[in-house]
Amino acid sequence: MSRSNRNSTDAITFSEFDLPRLKITVTGGRGFLGRHVVDLLVGMGASRGNILVPATAMFDLRTSNAAAEVTEGRDLVIHLAARVGGIGFNQQHPGELIYDNTTMGVNIIHQAHKNGVKKLVVAGTVCAYPKFTPVPFKEDDLWNGYPEETNAPYGIAKKHMLVMLQAYRQQYGLHGVFLLPANLYGPYDNFDLESSHVIPAMISKFVQARREKMASVKLWGDGSASREFLFVEDCARGLVAAAMKYDGPEPVNLGTHEEITIKSLAEMIKSITEYDGEILWDSSRPNGQPRRALDVQRARDAFGFEAKVSLREGLKRTIQWFQEQVAMSAS
């Protein structure tokens, strides 16, 4: 492991030989992305006994005391805990989203500094980009405008973490890394229609419609918006690769560089779920950001990350997992 003192600019990197003895915290490690990160770390040689996965009921990271506890004595902290949801959830809870995410981020970053954490990795969000960012989104475009309105409170809370990481690196030598994943999907995602993102919401609707022989499925917007989707296991690989190999102040996109319209996505999910009814679009509902697709060159150059799972393959695996959960709950 390359080491530095608290105020050094020398990069800190880890090797797989370091993993068995590293003391690691993964905030949000019981959630959708976090459980994949924890499993990957263990699979690579980290000791599960050395990985702290703080439960929300025991550690409210909106308090500085809880943030201090989960960062004390840690070599590596991966901060994934977040209050997050889809467009509808964002519209209903903007105050909670900006408060909870900003407060958790401030506490974790400050306490990581105070406790001498060797490296801090923070997951940002593609929602932080300006509404009309030229496609593909380059990291240098992050400050060229205001985020799309329905996502702004969440996106700005995450952008605040980037600025704070850079400030603490400059003043205190905190080795903080900030990543910007594309829209995630995969097994263990949130399929609650009240708060889910677009892929789990569509999967839930199409699976239910096929099971109940419904004539149509109604989806939000008009289908014209585009997105880039990253399979959760690929995102976990990117986060861990950055934790091991990258130590710079600049944010880094994690994605596939593949753009798809919401309408085409719906047709793909409809086909995989073998639903034969009609798709209806509710244009009174918002589309969200018009386009999203990431430039992923920096991740490739900085720590060799490239996504491995295609959208169709990832959707098949996610749909299979969800259908198994539905079958288990019905039995």
Key traits:
Rossmann fold, two-stranded parallel sheet, disordered N terminus, globular, alpha/beta, six-stranded parallel β-sheet, 10 helices, 331 residues
Concise structural overview:
The protein has 331 residues and is α/β, with parallel strands linked by helices. It contains ten helices and twelve strands. Helix 2 crosses helix 4 and helix 4 runs parallel beside helix 5.
- Which percent range fits the helix content? 40-55%
| Assembly type | single chain
Put simply, the count of helices is 10
The count of β-strands is 12
N-to-C CA distance: 50 Å
Name the structural class. Answer: alpha/beta
Question: What would you call the shape?
Answer: globular
CATH superfamily of the domain at 19-186 and 230-257 and 290-308: NAD(P)-binding Rossmann-like Domain
Give the second-level CATH assignment, the architecture of the domain at 19-186 and 230-257 and 290-308: 3-Layer(aba) Sandwich
Strand order of the largest sheet: 2-1-3-4-5-10
